[in-house]
Amino acid sequence: MEQSLEIFDRLVRELLADEAQNPVAEYIPSANLYARLDLKLQKDGISAAELEASLKDLIFTTPRTATNGFFNQLFGGRQDKAILGDLLSVILNNSMATYKAAGPQIGVEKVLLREVCDMIGWDEKSGGTLAPGGSMTNFMGMLMARDAYNETTRHAGVHQKMTVYTSIESHYSTPKNAAFAGIGRDNVRHISTDAYGRMDMAVLRQTIEADLEKGLHPVLINCTAGTTVLAAFDDLRTASEIAKEFNIWLHVDGAYCGSVLFSDKYKHQIDGVENVDSFTLNAHKMMGTPLSCSLIVVKDKTHLKNSFSNDASYLYQTDHDEFNPGKTSLQCGRRNDALKFWVLWKSVGTSGLERIVDKQFALADVARDYVRNHPDYTDYSIDDSVAICFNYKGIPAEDICTLLYEHSELLVGYGSFREDTFIRLVTINATNEKADILKFFETLESFVAEHEDVFSKLLLA
Ligand SMILES: *Cc1c(COP(=O)(O)O)cnc(C)c1O
Predict the structure, then answer these.
(1) How far apart (Å, rounded) are the C-alpha atoms in residues 437 and 87?
(2) Which of 1, 35, 229, 364 allows an S-S link to 427, with CB 3.0 to 4.6 Å?
């Protein structure tokens, strides 16, 4: 063990030093991967020195998702205290099914979930759990919705034509989960949005009414807090009125921006969240913890038990169900994802979490102001969002993003809303500073200037 820890320590220090100089890793086309790197496995083992050299080559050529050159996905940066927590959970290697195997780590998870429920304004009846990512916590929300609608479903299977409502801007996990849940992709209604990317509540109501008239069974409204492209927030107050009127489960997919819960300044975007049935948030997005750390909280935790408990005499041998969270989990063996978030929270306090969220919006304002004040840019962003959407000099977004990647300049992606396709810069990395955002634009502009021949051809095409 000692030797492995030493290797780890050396490799990480070398990597961090190199990242400071080179925020974007060497681009290796997938077609060249196996020629460039020795990834083969062989019959006999190798020495520690050979292993270290091989690992160094591997980690140095791996995309750098924590640097100020990464704006590609909805995570980024490193919150070092969260990393400390995650490293400890690897060393401890508990499974979060039983108190017998995880002891106080169960308490860590319970305290974390309790605190989130309290912030929402929910009482002791509420509860929650963690699962490996927002797709999975959304899946749990859907299963509870399905089972709450008809409690015989868990035993008899789906035997009604159930329907689910989500906006066209929502995450793809909803149709995928509908397939898993036996509801079926075809029974997901994709509701149109307004000009700001928010679900159109009038269309939602009409669609539900039309389905009820056809004798269908609406079981779930899925609202989004932070849509994937624009980072828009659906109107939870109106959605919860509709959900109540038609007696439909309301889930909020806050995987991306649900962490606005921690910000006094921005939590108005999830106004009404106390009225929903379940709520998902990914701490590995806005909170900057390592992947993955996804929480689902439920206003009435008996739904968790109804949908996910199963007796297993070989597993649950001691302690009360309250401390055996395997009874409310999608999984059996379960990694301790709570500790990293708890260590971060313990270290910086709730006000520190608030600063992390507010910083992202402040960086977004820097980027949005830049785009809006420079005539070479076309702006497609909405206000108060951590996604800045723009085009530069009319160059197709796909081309510019791909070339930036292939030249190891910047990792940034593109998205579409309605008729437009644009570069989408996400300011999710709270360890960035204003200078890093300005450097992004500087890099982009000088890259385009250097490759003017390529880009002018693209414009003519
Ligand atoms: C990221 C995201 C998800 C999926 O979360 P994973 O942890 O990647 O599975 C779901 N919904 C939204 C809105 C997201 O941004």
Answers:
(1) 30
(2) 364
